[in-house]
Structures are given as C-alpha cells and as structure tokens.
Amino acid sequence: MCGFVCRLTRGLHVVLCRTGMLSKAGVLRIFSQTELGSFALTSRFSWNVIANTSTFPRGFSHTVALNTAVLLRARRMTEKPPAKHCCSAGVGTGESCASSPHVKRVAIEGNIAVGKSTFARILQAENKHWEITPEPLSEWQNIQTTGEPSKKSQQNVSNLLQMMYQDSSRWSYTFQTYSCMSRIKAQLKPVSSRLLNLVQPVQIFERSVYSDRYVFALNMFNMGSINDTEWAIYQDWHTFLVQEFGKRLELEGIIYLRAQPQVCKERLSRRARPEEKGITLEYLETLHTQHENWLVHKSTQVHFEHLRKVPVLVLDVDDDIQNNREYKMQIITQVKNYVSSLWAS
Ligand SMILES: Nc1ncnc2c1ncn2[C@@H]1O[C@H](COP(=O)(O)OP(=O)(O)O)[C@@H](O)[C@H]1O
Ligand SMILES: Nc1nc2c(ncn2[C@H]2C[C@H](O)[C@@H](COP(=O)(O)O)O2)c(=O)[nH]1
C-alpha cells in the first residue's frame, strides 16, 4: 500500500496516498461530501500535529476518496507556520487542536452578583475533576499603561471597569473589546496536565465569549452605550474570531445561575465592590432579560450553529446556597447529573 496512516481524531485512521515532492509543513483539510455533491470543510489539521511531516510531498496536492464518502485533500500551505504546540496555536489553526476531546467545557453564566464565583468555588471543592477558570476581572481593573510620554518609564494603571461604569458611552465599546479578548485567552488556555490525567475532567469557565456578546455587548447597544458603528464593528470581529478559533472556543455545556434581579442587587450591595456602587436595579433587570432571552426563551439571534445546540442547565439560586447544606447538595447533584449527561451524549 502506498502512503501513510495518520491518526486524525479518536478512532479515525486515514490512509494518504502520495504523489509529488517533499514538504515540511502544511495543512490537511477534511471535506465531507454534501447531498449536492459539493464538499464542505469539516476539519483542518496542521501536518506537524498529526504526523512526521518530513516525509510529506512538496507541493502536495492530492485527493483521496474514502469509502465513507469522506474526501481527503491535503494542500501545501506555507503562509502560516504551524504551531509548535497545538494548544498554543494561532488563529486559523483552531481545528488542529479541537481542544482535548476527553475534556468537557462548561460555562457558568448569570447576572452580576448572582453568585457565580461562590458557586464555582463550591464546585471546585466538591469535585477534583472540575477545574475553574475565573472571569479575568482583575485584568480589567488593572491595565498597565505607559502614562504621559514625558514619564515614559513610569507605569500607570487604568481601571477599565470603573471607567466603563463612570462614562459608559465613552468606554463601553473599549470595555467589550478588552473583556472579549481576555475571555478568548481564558478559553484558549491549555488544559492543565493535572486535569488531563483525570477521568471525565471538566473545565468550567466563569462566563464566556458568548455572554460577552449576547448579554453584555447587546445590552450596551440596546441602552445606547455602544453606537451603531461600534456594534457593527464588534459583531464583525466577534464572528470572525469565534469562527477562526473554531472548536477551541466551543462549549459542551452552559450552567445558567438565575436569581431575581432584586436578589442580585442585595448581593451586589453586600459585596460592595467600589466600581459597582452606581449599578441600579434597572440595569440588573435588563441583564436578567438578556440572559433569559438567550438561554431560556432562545429568542436572541445567535450566529454560531454549535451554540444553539449547547444544553443549558438552569439553576434557580434565589435561596442562600452557602448556609443551607441540603439545598447546596441538591444543586450539586443537579450539576453532577447534568455533567454525566454531557459525557453520555
Ligand atoms: N446563593 C447565595 N446566597 C446568598 N448569598 C450569596 C449566594 N451566592 C453568592 N452570595 C454572596 O453574594 C455576593 C456575590 O457573589 P459572587 O459569587 O461574587 O457573585 P458573582 O461572581 O456572580 O458576581 C457575595 O457576597 C457572596 O457571598
Ligand atoms: N459592560 C460589561 N460589564 C461586564 C462584562 N462582564 C462583566 N462585567 C462587569 C459586571 C460586574 O460589574 C463585573 C464582574 O462581573 P461579575 O458578575 O462576575 O461580578 O464586571 C461585560 O462583558 N460587559
């Protein structure tokens, strides 16, 4: 038999017949045949991730029809060097990593001060197979700037969270660019080796690139804090980046923590974060509505096919989870059952 056996995904072995000359790097694309006879790109892998590429042909351009109506085509692509480590790969190589297939990724979503961080800590303590990635709040509160040109060496710190609450029309768009970028980085962070060695590991993110758009940015736009032009630009780059990073930003599950806005207001006041002292009940109500529209009524227009299919676990957390052991165990059981269902699917 001519060619190589490449393990592309779990359980899928592909025989590549070769023609042509040698190449060191490239991208392998898998196309599925559609009913109309055309081919849709389903996966893309950096060659150096799947095999020793020194044996691949230069200028390789070849098509192999497999008996499962899957067409394989490999093409030399030298513009973008393949990443050294699949999980730190750049834009455009997203599918090469497809994250770790045996780690489930779940986001905790919910209104401000509903109790996401508290809940995340409870989950972390409950199950060592669940690892939490907190929301990058401190990054938003501590942006290193160089200050005035005359004081170049002096480092200043900007608190973008505070700036956004103090002058929302000036800073909301800037805030969403930064919050979204930091969420992308958080979601792309490689899975820890500790987690990778566990059975049925789960990566839990506090919020996601999706609530950034379908809750906050949309809300800011509806409130007039983000104008038409900013909204168009935000949506353009958001769609582009989410599509480019592909599977690496996808979630397998969403846990929606829900409480009445009034309850969130009370918890917010108790927490007393200085930047948030101007937050009104009305603002929390609009955010509540955005969550409900996106995750419960499904009336928000979402732009990513996979996101529409993500199963959502809704947990009502109006009651005190911290000081009521029975209630806490009941909620944890719901999460365990939900996570088990993700593994079963
Ligand atoms: N279920 C709950 N019942 C009562 N208080 C809670 C509950 N969950 C969180 N809190 C309290 O509410 C405040 C906000 O919680 P936090 O976890 O910081 O919210 P979030 O991360 O959603 O902004 C904290 O003071 C926390 O102790
Ligand atoms: N305008 C936006 N504000 C956001 C966004 N994500 C979080 N936030 C604010 C809300 C809180 O004041 C603070 C932290 O949120 P918690 O709910 O975790 O306490 O940051 C956003 O995308 N846009």
TrEMBL record:
Catalyzed chemical reaction(s): 2'-deoxyguanosine + ATP = dGMP + ADP + H(+)
CDD domains the UniProt entry points to: dNK
Alphabetized SUPFAM superfamilies for the sequence: P-loop containing nucleoside triphosphate hydrolases
Keyword Transferase tagged: yes
Domain Deoxynucleoside kinase: 107-339
Pfam families given in the database record: dNK
EC number in record: 2.7.1.113
An MF annotation (GO) of this entry: deoxyguanosine kinase activity
Family: Belongs to the DCK/DGK family.
Protein name: deoxyguanosine kinase
Organism per entry: Erpetoichthys calabaricus (Rope fish)
